């Protein structure tokens, strides 16, 4: 974890302190170092725990609290003070700021406001442009053709990651019109991406988590909107805000993007650390991939995030040879997932993830391997699965008609 802010909190009122505490404890970007119920004890608490941020609730006794802010400015200048009050009175805000508060938040505090305030404090402290993100891993899963297995990979990858008790994982269904991640997980969600988007300024951590549907695997699902008419309400801008919140809460976010490569999908690519493109070894798919890669080249930073995942390896004898496919797309294959029609049918009919249905099946082990490669280490992307060619591969001379992408598409080694 980098740039986690250590906090100390003072609020003499038990209930509001508990509320604040719960909110802070739910955020991975902060570490609650100490809490205190008396203004007069706070300087000692701060000198012992040396937090990055001191949170002072003003409500119990604003005069005392403002005097405390002044004292802290002198005694602990490196601790950024954040004042919290249920009053938004201009005079009170002004006095707090003059007393040294760096930020002022009004109760009820929205998670987004808190994040922004902490982000500004973090920026001031570390000079980072993104204080709100610890190393949340965002993995977008796209497909180069319809039905290639994009959702299968996204859902099962999410479930495998969620099985790790150290991770908190959210799956966002960005296939806004016809996404089916909820069906894969056999859930009927109460809320969708639209609800989160519309209520974003009111959301606190609890509400955010309650808006997501928790699957028995531990995976949190944020499904696509119910109504087709609502799709247009999800904009890149609103998504940016949703992801800002999700990043504060989850260690991993998996995004199932649509086949439309819409502006929201492209926004997801922007947030993502890794963009998996699922393909199958057939002509239309590889052809699309070549074309997509050309377009992706125009988007800054995207080429480096791309990772090709070949799904359904061994499907049929007509499949294009892996070596040939690799030459054609001009980059290495990051991962291969075997074909397993029977298991996938069972998984689909039962609405359970592979890990639960058939944990030892080669396809499940492949998903686990993929999760391991992607799970966290910053350099995970540079390693690849051992290069095994498709058993059913055949020579396909027609591939030679395609322009050789090797020259302008250097693969990452
Ligand atoms: N490795 C695989 N082996 C066999 N069937 C698969 C495999 N991956 C996906 N499928 C099946 O292919 C179909 C389409 O998969 P899906 O994940 O919905 O694709 P997409 O999201 O790209 O449209 C599903 O019925 C799924 O069960
Ligand atoms: Mg899908």
Structural notes for this entry:
The chain is 40% helix and 18% strand. The relative contact order is 0.11. Strands 8-9-7-10-6-11-12-13 form an eight-stranded mixed sheet, sandwiched between helices. The protein has a five-stranded parallel sheet with strand order 2-1-3-4-5, with helices on both faces. It has helices at 14-25, 42-49, 62-75, 90-98, 111-126, 150-162, 181-184, 193-198, 205-211, 236-249, 263-271, 283-297, 302-305, 322-329, 341-350, 354-357, 362-374; strands spanning 5-10, 30-36, 53-57, 80-85, 101-106, 137-143, 169-174, 213-214, 220-222, 252-257, 274-279, 306-313, 333-338. It starts with a strand and ends in a 39-residue tail after the last helix. It has 413 residues and is of the alpha/beta class. It has two domains: 5-126, Response regulator (Rossmann fold), CATH 3.40.50.2300; 137-401, P-loop containing nucleotide triphosphate hydrolases (Rossmann fold, 3-Layer(aba) Sandwich), CATH 3.40.50. Strand 12, helix 14 and strand 13 form a beta-alpha-beta unit. Helix 3 (62-75) packs parallel to helix 4, helix 6 (150-162) crosses helix 17 (362-374) and helix 10 (236-249) runs parallel beside helix 11. The radius of gyration is 25 Å and the shape is elongated. It is built from 17 helices and 13 strands. It binds adenosine-5'-diphosphate and magnesium ion. Magnesium ion (MG) binds at residues 150-151, 175, 180. Magnesium ion binds at residues 150-151, 175, 180.
């Amino acid at each position: 974890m980098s740039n986690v802010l250590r906090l100390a909190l003072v609020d003499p009122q038990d209930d509001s302190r508990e509320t604040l505490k719960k909110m802070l404890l739910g955020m991975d970007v902060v570490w609650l170092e100490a809490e205190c119920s008396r203004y007069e004890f706070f300087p000692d608490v701060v000198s012992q725990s040396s937090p990055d941020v001191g949170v002072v609730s003003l409500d119990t006794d604003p005069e005392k609290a403002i005097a405390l802010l002044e004292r802290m400015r002198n005694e602990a200048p490196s601790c950024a003070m954040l004042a919290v009050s249920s009053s938004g009175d201009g005079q009170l805000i002004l006095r707090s700021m003059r007393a040294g508060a760096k930020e002022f938040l009004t109760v009820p505090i929205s998670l987004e406001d808190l994040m922004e305030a902490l982000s500004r404090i973090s920026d001031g402290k570390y000079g980072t442009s993104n204080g709100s993100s610890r190393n949340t891993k965002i993995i977008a899963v796209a497909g180069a053709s319809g039905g290639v297995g994009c959702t299968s990979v996204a859902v099962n990858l999410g479930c495998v990651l969620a099985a790790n008790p150290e991770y908190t994982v959210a799956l966002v269904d960005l296939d806004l019109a016809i996404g089916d991640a909820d069906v894969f997980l056999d859930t009927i969600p109460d809320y969708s991406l639209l609800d989160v988007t519309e209520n974003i300024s009111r959301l606190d951590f609890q509400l955010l988590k309650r808006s997501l549907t928790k699957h028995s695997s531990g995976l949190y699902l944020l499904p696509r909107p119910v109504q087709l008419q609502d799709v247009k309400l999800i904009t890149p801008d609103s998504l940016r805000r949703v992801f800002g919140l999700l990043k504060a809460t989850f260690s991993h976010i998996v995004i199932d993007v649509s086949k439309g490569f819409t502006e929201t999908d492209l926004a997801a690519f922007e947030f993502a650390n890794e963009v998996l493109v699922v393909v199958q070894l057939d002509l239309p798919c590889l052809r699309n991939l070549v074309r997509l890669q050309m377009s992706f080249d125009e988007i800054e930073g995207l080429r480096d995030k791309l990772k090709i995942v070949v799904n359904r390896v061994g499907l049929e004898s007509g499949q294009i040879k892996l070596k040939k496919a690799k030459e054609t797309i001009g980059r290495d294959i990051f991962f291969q997932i075997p074909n397993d029609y029977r298991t996938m049918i069972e998984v689909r009919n039962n609405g359970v993830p592979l890990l639960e249905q058939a944990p030892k099946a080669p396809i499940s082990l492949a998903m686990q391997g993929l999760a391991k490669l992607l799970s966290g280490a910053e350099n995970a992307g540079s390693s690849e699965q051992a290069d095994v060619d498709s058993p059913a591969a055949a020579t396909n001379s027609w591939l030679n008609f395609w322009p050789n992408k090797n020259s302008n598409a250097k693969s990452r080694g």
